[in-house]
Amino acid sequence: MSAYKAFKACVPIEWSDKLYITLVRGMPGTRELHRRTLEALRLRKCNRRVVRKNTPTVRGMLQQVKRLVAIETKEMYEARKQKEANHRALRPPLVINHHHSSPSN
């Protein structure tokens, strides 16, 4: 299981009025119909993200190119961003005290 799928599994999926769509695979070697669909979604380069309204038209387009894109709801997107921010946050320094004990005779 990929890290992305593992993350998706831990976030509850709810209805969202906006979809965050990221192109995760390249367009070379894909069908012309898929390339035109990605152009219509304004996804031209890998790892680019667009925000679209959750409409039946957009969902139909995403169904065509579902193997090329990652789709997140607003809640999933915010949870992932929060997790990344927590990972990058400064952590308190690790303090190690080396108490040299004197030998007792």
UniProtKB/TrEMBL annotation:
Extent of the signal sequence: none
Domain Large ribosomal subunit protein uL30-like ferredoxin-like fold: 20-69
Record region (Disordered): 82-105
Keyword Ribonucleoprotein: yes
Record's keyword annotation contains Nuclease: no
GO cellular component: ribonucleoprotein complex; ribosome
Keywords for this protein: Ribonucleoprotein, Ribosomal protein
CDD domains per the UniProt record, alphabetical: Ribosomal_L30
Superkingdom to which the source organism belongs: Eukaryota
Pfam family for this entry, one: Ribosomal_L30
Similarity remark: Belongs to the universal ribosomal protein uL30 family.
UniProt name for this protein: Large ribosomal subunit protein uL30m
Native source species: Cinchona calisaya
